[in-house]
Design goal:
- By secondary structure, this protein is α/β, with parallel strands linked by helices.
- The chain is 27% helix and 24% strand.
- The strands form 2 sheets. An 8-stranded parallel β-sheet has the order 5-6-7-8-9-10-11-12. It has a 7-stranded mixed β-sheet with strand order 3-2-1-4-13-14-15.
- The protein is globular.
């Protein structure tokens, strides 16, 4: 295989942003040299003044195949990922049928994915009532993490767990060196809708911040009882971070993510009937959005992941009724630009994206020995993008299987020009 060199004036390395040449052989980075260090006979990708960054690692993606491929599938999701600079995906154990709660279901996932993936795909195992004995075999079979819901998941085949279920699962998870990702909403704090409604405020009122806080407190107590690394997914409110700071001060293994939609949108900006904005936990106030940004920039939040969860249009556009619409946002292809757009508005430098969406997720997924950095010995997963270029989101041109997204028509910064996976170009603009 001909050696490949990616070189440019703005390469994000562990030592900082600098002019450099990245030398790849057999899918891996063999060294990072000076910008003029170009071997005779090598194929050269010229990045110029574009930013050269490790490929994005998205640790929270619902690909839904097998069983609900009409919602999303490996072919369309991974093609969208490549177009968005995402080079590794962690596939959630739902909403596929069967759910990935045992090794047989994991095998079905891998079989369904074979020959369809444009980027790297890793898998997450499910923790549901009664499957504690399946957890160690799932980890031995290669899952990178586990996932549970404290509130109803929205699909019958992936049941929510109560504290008694977690007390059965935690001793099985201890020592597996894999995080338990937790959908942290306490069902006791959720309210039943009184009637269908087109008003976003009515939906928001049924999923209060208190539910998230109560669930996080429960998980911290369980980690104190039995030390299992716990990762709080899709944090919607910064008001629970005081609990997490106290837990970390006790050296408890607690990490937390937020998502592009919580960093981009605000409840008071959501029009009546705009069910494309529905997710759980819900998008909250503008003040909460700013508090999440402050926490991300300060380091209280470890990473950003998309929680890409699309569905067929008729499930999302239910005549504008927020209570009957599916609760998920399609954002995989545009997650990195969405985060960068908000970050640049707040004075952050583009290399922070590499921290939040590359190195942080690699550490969570136990991949940081080979992914998430541009350095010798790491996989040749690279994205070349223009942080100064803007574009308007045209939903019809997204690679996701289903195109309904709240980002439609929005101007974002951060145009992906080229994506490499294992040293192979999987996306090139134009």
């Amino acid at each position: 295989m001909t050696p490949l060199i990616v070189r440019g004036q703005r390469v994000i390395t562990p030592e900082g942003v600098r002019a450099a040449s990245v030398h790849l052989e057999n899918g891996r980075i063999v060294r990072v040299g000076g910008v003029d260090d170009v071997a005779t006979g090598a194929e050269v990708v010229e990045a110029g003044d574009l930013l050269v960054m490790p490929g994005v690692i998205d640790t929270h993606v619902h690909m839904n195949e097998p069983g609900r491929t009409d919602w999303e599938g490996f072919e369309t999701a991974t093609r969208a990922a490549a177009a968005g600079g995402v080079t590794t995906i962690l596939d959630m154990p739902l909403n596929s049928i069967p759910a990935t709660t045992n090794v047989s279901a994991l095998d079905a996932k891998r079989s369904a994915a074979r020959g369809k993936c444009h980027v790297n795909v890793e898998y997450i195992g499910g923790v549901v009532p009664g499957n504690a004995s399946d957890l160690k075999p799932l980890r031995e079979a290669g899952v990178r993490a586990f996932k549970c819901f404290l509130a109803p998941s929205g699909v019958d085949e992936f049941g929510a767990v109560a504290e008694r279920d977690l007390r059965s699962a935690f001793p099985e998870l201890a020592g597996l060196d894999a995080p338990l990702m937790v959908h942290a909403e306490d069902p006791a704090e959720l309210l039943e809708p009184k009637a269908p409604s087109r008003k976003y405020a009515d939906y928001l009122a049924t999923r209060p911040i208190a539910s998230e806080r109560s669930a996080i407190a429960l998980m911290i107590g369980l980690v104190e009882w039995c030390e299992v690394p716990v990762h709080i997914v899709h944090l919607s409110s910064a008001s629970s971070l005081d609990l997490i700071r106290v837990a970390r001060a006790k050296k408890l293994p607690i990490t937390v993510e937020t998502c592009p939609h919580y960093l981009t949108f605000a409840a008071d900006e959501i029009p009546d009937g705009a069910t494309e904005y529905k997710c759980a936990p819900p998008i909250r106030s503008g003040a909460e959005r700013e508090a999440l940004w402050d926490a991300l920039i300060s380091g209280d939040i470890d990473l950003v992941a998309s929680d890409h969860s699309p569905c067929p249009p008729d499930m999302k556009q239910t005549g504008g009724d927020f209570f009957s619409a599916w609760g998920g946002i399609a954002s995989l292809q545009i997650s990195m630009p969405a985060v960068w757009t908000g970050a640049r508005q707040r004075g952050a430098k583009p290399e922070r994206i590499a921290q939040w969406m590359c190195a942080g997720p690699a550490k969570l997924a136990r991949l940081s020995d080979r992914k998430g950095k541009i350095a010798a010995g790491y996989d040749g997963d690279i994205v070349i993008w223009d942080p100064e270029a803007s574009f308007v989101v045209d939903a019809a041109k997204l690679e996701h299987r289903n195109k309904v997204t709240p980002y439609a028509g929005r101007t974002l910064f951060g145009l992906v020009e080229k994506t490499l996976v294992g040293g192979r170009v999987v996306f090139s603009r134009g």
